[in-house]
TrEMBL record:
The keyword Ubl conjugation does not apply. One of its GO terms (molecular function) is FMN binding. This is Alpha-hydroxy-acid oxidizing protein. Glyoxylate binds at Y37, Y143, R178, H275, R278.
Length: 378
């Protein structure tokens, strides 16, 4: 309504409302290197495509006269009350698309009450993002360093700064073959982007021969060496509990047996995710594995989902297939690129409105009551 009413006064939205055009709109305002870093996938892009194709295989079957005028999008995930089943996925190095980076994202998220998940590879520190996020709900995503004391320090800082849930990303213990970035010879971390959590960490700094202010390249290489190649074992998960008393979520689960192992290890949740198709080329579409995983472990831990979510209908489908909430990746980064905090808010408000209308028009009233019976596989 707001947008149509503005139209009466001759105004059109500052930025497209079409989820299919967000990527192109971002391409217009970004240099090819950062744009390629955000939009790109692993290898030949087969997993990026598979994520979308998986959504296309499911169709919503709308019901009529269900009195869906009064709808509820609100839900609770791992003790976090949320206005909608939506979180902002952890995305590192956000200053490559906008100077305000994660600070803008944190402000936009807080203004809508949507939880953000801060990446370890953030361009702003854990504490600065928390300050920008204010009273907003926030979770912290860990790239798990080899050095246990550095790890403990990051976790205690996140806890002190009000992050309530720990998300441990398992699928990026080394970076994939990403041809777009390789062709550009572009890795933002080597320019010092996405290093704020590490460089501001007292324990990490104590590991350096020289302060990062005096020798930034050595500090960067030291950090990359600490997180790259760190494929920890399942038996190391309990050690995280020593430094984190809140819920722990494993991100990057694609196999039903891994989901079971996460539950066996006492984890509180998982994110069914293939990192937006950025890690294993030719991997299964993330939505394709969601139903069996939700059926196997949905009663033992909370199942979240990401990779390929673009529309309200996508969220309805993921929830109907067993996700409790979804994480949004690239679309909000495109909003950030276009308009900083306002751009992120524009994308989120559009997606939430689209979700609200799709829930109602398909004859549903509460997102917590969606079930596979509202879909048909086509
Ligand atoms: C990511 N993602 C990611 N995940 C994570 O756990 N830590 C991180 O630092 C990053 N960084 C990152 C940067 C960029 C530019 C992108 C696009 C993605 C993955 C992210 O959390 C999420 O899993 C995917 O983005 C979801 O897929 P869609 O929504 O982008 O299709």
């Amino acid at each position: 309504n707001e947008l149509y009413l503005q139209g009466l006064a001759g105004a059109v939205p500052p930025f497209t409302t079409d989820p299919g055009k967000l990527e192109d709109a971002a391409r217009q305002v970004l240099d090819p290197k950062p744009f390629g870093y955000v939009a790109g996938g692993a290898g030949a892009g087969a997993t990026v495509r598979a994520n979308r194709e998986a959504f296309d295989r499911w169709r919503i079957v709308p019901r009529m006269l269900t009195d869906a005028t009064d709808r509820r999008l609100a839900t609770t995930v791992l003790g976090t009350a949320m206005p909608a089943p939506l979180l902002l996925a952890p995305v590192g190095v956000q200053t490559i698309v906008h100077p305000d980076g994660e600070l803008a994202t944190a402000r936009a998220a807080a203004s809508l009450g949507v939880p953000m998940v801060l990446s370890t590879a953030s361009s702003h520190s854990i504490e600065d993002v928390a300050a920008a996020n204010g009273e907003g709900p926030r979770w912290f995503q860990l790239y798990w360093p080899h050095d246990p004391e550095v790890c403990a320090s990051l976790l205690s800082r996140a806890k002190d700064a009000g992050y309530t849930v720990l998300v441990v990303t398992l699928d990026t213990w080394t970076l994939a073959w990403r041809p777009t970035d390789l062709d550009h010879a572009y890795l933002p971390f080597l320019n010092g982007e996405g290093m704020a959590c590490a460089l501001s960490d007292p324990v990490f700094r104590s590991r350096l021969d020289k302060a990062p202010e005096d020798d930034l390249p050595s500090a960067i290489l030291r950090w990359l060496g600490m997180v790259n190649g760190a494929d920890h074992g399942w038996n190391q998960l309990p050690a995280l509990r020593e430094h984190w008393d809140g819920p722990i979520v494993l991100k990057g689960i694609q196999h039903v047996d891994d989901a079971r192992r996460a539950a066996d290890a006492g984890m509180d949740g998982i994110v069914v995710s293939n990192h937006g198709g950025r890690q294993v080329d030719g991997a299964v579409g993330s939505l394709d594995v969601l139903p069996e995983i939700a059926a196997a472990v949905g009663d033992r831990l909370e199942v979240l989902f990401d990779s390929g979510v673009r529309t309200g209908a996508d969220i309805v489908k993921a929830l109907a297939l067993g996700a409790r909430a979804v994480l949004l990746g690239r679309p909000y980064v495109y909003g950030l690129a276009h308009g900083g905090e306002d751009g992120v808010r524009h994308v989120l408000r559009g997606l939430l409105a689209d979700l609200d209308m799709t829930v109602g028009l398909s004859g549903n009233r509460a997102v917590t009551a969606l079930h596979p019976g509202i879909l048909r596989r086509s």
